[in-house]
Design brief:
Blueprint: H1 2-7, E1 14-18, H2 22-58, H3 67-77, H4 81-86, H5 90-116, E2 118-122, E3 125-130, E4 136-141, E5 145-151, H6 154-159, E6 161-168, E7 173-180, H7 182-198
Antiparallel strand pairs: 1-2, 2-3, 3-4, 5-6, 6-7
Helix pairs in contact: 2-3, 2-5
């Protein structure tokens, strides 16, 4: 919470810090799994096609009961399983690599967003800060908060994550990303509003 700590006003205190739920990280990591699976799938499709064409051209009209044997012999004649992979067309290799790289970049983008986002409720305001070099900061004074909505699906209710929309009076709204325990964060906002209206301190 480097930005929040640096921007605190005198007598302003941090009440609640929002944290990304582990489900966000899981979703980000799934892009690595998807990328690896797609890359392997493309390479295997190329391998299957090449061996199948070899079997058709060298063992025409092979009986079904001998097809597996013909397939194995075709792989052996082409230098083995790995050699078939390595001898694939350069376009196939580049396509498989490009798909994997795109998925890695999506994963990296999501993790950068997670590591550079700060969500904080203080005694005076709600702050959502994104980015490091190019910063995007959204703030709403606690006094100007008009309503808070929590959005949780079935899985969110079970695992304890969700999104929060905070509406301000005449100052727009802030959509918080996928955070852990959104209901507790909403309660903290409601409690902060009540305390501000009553003039009490935390």
């Amino acid at each position: 919470m480097l930005y929040i700590q640096q921007s605190l006003n005198p007598n302003e205190e941090i009440i609640k810090v929002g944290h990304f739920h582990w489900w966000y990280t899981f979703n980000a990591m799934m892009w690595l799994v998807i990328g690896a699976a797609m890359m392997i799938g493309i390479l295997y499709a190329a391998y299957y096609w090449e061996v199948m064409q070899f079997v058709k051209s060298n063992y025409p009209n092979v009986p079904d009961n001998l097809y597996d044997r013909a397939w194995n012999e075709a792989v052996e004649q082409k230098g083995g399983f790995m050699n078939v992979f390595l001898s694939s067309h350069i376009a196939v290799k580049l396509s498989a690599f490009a798909v994997f790289v795109v998925c890695v970049l999506i994963f990296a983008q999501k993790m950068v967003i997670k590591s550079t986002t700060e969500i904080c409720l203080t005694t005076e305001r709600l702050v959502l800060k994104r980015g490091v070099i190019a910063r995007h900061i959204e703030e709403i004074s606690v006094d100007r908060i008009e309503g808070v909505d929590v959005f949780q699906g079935i899985l969110g209710r079970i695992l304890g994550f969700g999104r929060i929309n905070v509406r301000g009076m005449g100052v727009g709204e802030i959509d918080l990303p996928l955070i852990a325990q959104p209901v507790d964060f909403k309660k903290a906002i409601d409690r902060s509003r009540s305390m501000r209206r009553s003039g009490n301190n935390f």
